[in-house]
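#lab-general

N.A. 3:47 PM
ok so I finally got the sequence cleaned up, no stray characters, all 52 residues accounted for. can someone with queue access submit it? mine expired

B.Y. 3:52 PM
send it over

N.A. 3:53 PM
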Amino acid sequence: MYLDPGFGSMLIQAIVGGIAVVGSSFYLFRQKIKSFFQKPDKKENAGTQDTE
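B.Y. 4:20 PM
back already:
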């Protein structure tokens, strides 16, 4: 079986890209979970209340 000389760099690129995708997906998923369980800030809701 013949392996092209560029195959090693392509394999390394695929592995590094896969690690980057898994890492960023984990980070975004963790941020969504954290924001779901956090109380909303009072500063964010201050402008949305109707004052008459």
